[in-house]
Every structure is written in structure tokens, then in C-alpha cells.
UniProtKB/TrEMBL annotation:
One of its GO terms (molecular function) is DNA binding. It comes from the Bacteria. InterPro entries: HATPase_C_sf (IPR036890), Ribosomal_Su5_D2-typ_SF (IPR020568), Ribsml_uS5_D2-typ_fold_subgr (IPR014721), Topo_IIA (IPR001241), Topo_IIA_B (IPR000565), Topo_IIA_bsu_dom2 (IPR013506). Residues 132-278 form the DNA topoisomerase type IIA subunit B domain. It comes from Streptomyces mutabilis. The keyword rRNA-binding does not apply. The gene is gyrB. This is DNA topoisomerase (ATP-hydrolyzing). Keywords: ATP-binding, DNA-binding, Isomerase, Nucleotide-binding, Topoisomerase.
Length: 278
């Protein structure tokens, strides 16, 4: 079957990579065979070819960016590594392997006294998180010092009618800075959006209600501000939806109005339950 959602900002995906590459080689194992096709600047260089029979499935896409179009085709291992780690956190159970096989990236160990040839070690990382965004919060908080509460608060919810799902993981640490990171279809929404607005509104409203119910705030006291409440908070908000509306100059702000209502309701209910139990 197909995918319920896809991670992208402009709906063009691999077609742009294909159009801007001196060569793209695609290999697909499906329907009992291995299939291949090559492209140059977006145009097939040969017909789709069927090869040997196989029971395996999978897709491999290799591209060579066109040096006449791009000033540089040198890719940063660190940039790719950070993004792939983020993707692994956001897709619970997914394994992503990144290997840099370029000669320039190989660490050279000096030849020993016997005059052996120099040995090369390939630069490689692998990311896999069964805990998903709970592991993401633990990873971020591992550098933040003391924790206010030992366990990460996490919640998941889905509205099948709207093809909308939500995952949130959060934990307060002893620091003073807020670290709330939001994502829509695995895309980091740097400018926030309706999912963040719903989260912040529910959090501020609920914590103030809790503080008043427990007499932590007296009648004459002002409400706690959102900034007060989010001090020391590390949180990951991840929504997946079929038709995301991205706004802002860099298309990194989620604009779907139905998301705010959904997130606000779910966060309020789940967090209220957690507070009652803890």
C-alpha cells in the first residue's frame, strides 16, 4: 500500500532531484522482479528494464548532482547525520544507516613499522530508537542537568476521520531555557504553527487550573505565564496529516486550523490525567 503521509514542503520531491542531476539510477525490487531505469537531467536514458526474479522488496535511488548547475556537490556528513538522527527519533523503530565512502572522508591510520599499506576506515553511523520521541527528549535532556520528574510524559492520539495523528513527549529539567520542538510530517516547523499553539494554550490553561485547585496559587495571585510554565521544559510535538498547509517565507510554519483544536483537546485531557496520577 501507499503512505498515509509524506515528508516534504512543496510536493515535488525526487522529481526536482532528478531534473537537477547529471544521472539518477533507480532500482526497485517488486512484483517478483528487480527493475532498473536511469535518467539524465530528468529524462530517461533507456526504457524500464526487468531483470532477474527476486522475492525481495525495496527501492534504491542513487543520484549525481549536476556540477554545471550547482557550485558545489560536496555534501556535509554532519548535516546529513543530524537530519537522519532526527528522522529516526520521529519514526519509532526505523533504522537509518549513513555511510560516507568518499576517499576524502576516510580516516587514515599510519602504516606500522613493518611497512604495511595504509588502512582506511569508512565513516559510518546508524540510528534506531524503539522509544521514538521519548528517546528524543531523553537525548536532549541528557545535557541539561537535573530532571524535575524522572519519567518522560508521552501521549499519542489519532483522528481517523481527519487523517490526523499526534505524538508528544515532554519532560521538565532544572534549567531555565525552554526547548519545544515541533514537527509536521517529519518536517521541523521552525516557525511553529497551529500544533504548537494548541500545545501551549492547553499547557498554560491546565497548569494554572491545577495550581489553583491545589491551592498553589491563591485567589489574589496572578496566573502563571506561559513562559513561566515552559521554563526548563523539553518537548517534542509531532503531527502527521494528509494535507499540511505550510506558511511563512521558508514554509516552516503549520497553518492547518483543525490541528490547533485537536492538539489542545488531547494535551489538556492527557496531561490532566497524568497530573492526577502523579
Amino acid at each position: 500500500g501507499g503512505y498515509a503521509v509524506s515528508g516534504g514542503l512543496h510536493g515535488v520531491g525526487v522529481s526536482v532531484v532528478n531534473a537537477l542531476s547529471a544521472r539518477v539510477a533507480v532500482e526497485v525490487k517488486t512484483d517478483g522482479y528487480r527493475w532498473t531505469q536511469d535518467y539524465k537531467l530528468g529524462v530517461p536514458t533507456a526504457a524500464l528494464a526487468r531483470h532477474e526474479a527476486t522475492e525481495e522488496t525495496g527501492t534504491s535511488v542513487t543520484f549525481w548532482a549536476d556540477g554545471d548547475i550547482f557550485e558545489t556537490t560536496d555534501y556535509s556528513f554532519e548535516t546529513l547525520s543530524r537530519r537522519f538522527q532526527e528522522m529516526a527519533f520521529l519514526n519509532k523503530g526505523l533504522r537509518i544507516n549513513l555511510t560516507d565512502e568518499r576517499e576524502s572522508a576516510k580516516a587514515t591510520a599510519g602504516a606500522d613499522e613493518a611497512g604495511e599499506d595504509e588502512k582506511h576506515e569508512v565513516k559510518s553511523v546508524s540510528y534506531h530508537y524503539e522509544g521514538g520521541i521519548v528517546d528524543f527528549v531523553k537525548y536532549l535532556n541528557s545535557r541539561k542537568g537535573d530532571l524535575v520528574h524522572p519519567t518522560v510524559i508521552d501521549l499519542e492520539a489519532e483522528d481517523k476521520d481527519k487523517n490526523l495523528s499526534l505524538e508528544i513527549a515532554m519532560q521538565w529539567n532544572g534549567g531555565y531555557t525552554e526547548g519545544v520542538y515541533s514537527f509536521a510530517n517529519i518536517i521541523h516547523t521552525h516557525e511553529g504553527g497551529t500544533h504548537e499553539e494548541g500545545f501551549r494554550a492547553a499547557l498554560t490553561s491546565l497548569i494554572n487550573k491545577y495550581a489553583r485547585d491545589k491551592k498553589l496559587l491563591r485567589e489574589k495571585d496572578d496566573n502563571l505565564t506561559g513562559d513561566d510554565i515552559r521554563e526548563g521544559l523539553t518537548a517534542i510535538i509531532s503531527v502527521k496529516l494528509s494535507e499540511p498547509q505550510f506558511e511563512g517565507q521558508t514554509k516552516t510554519k503549520l497553518g492547518n486550523t483543525e490541528v490547533k483544536t485537536f492538539v489542545q483537546k488531547i494535551v489538556y485531557e492527557h496531561l490532566a490525567d497524568w497530573l492526577d496520577r502523579n
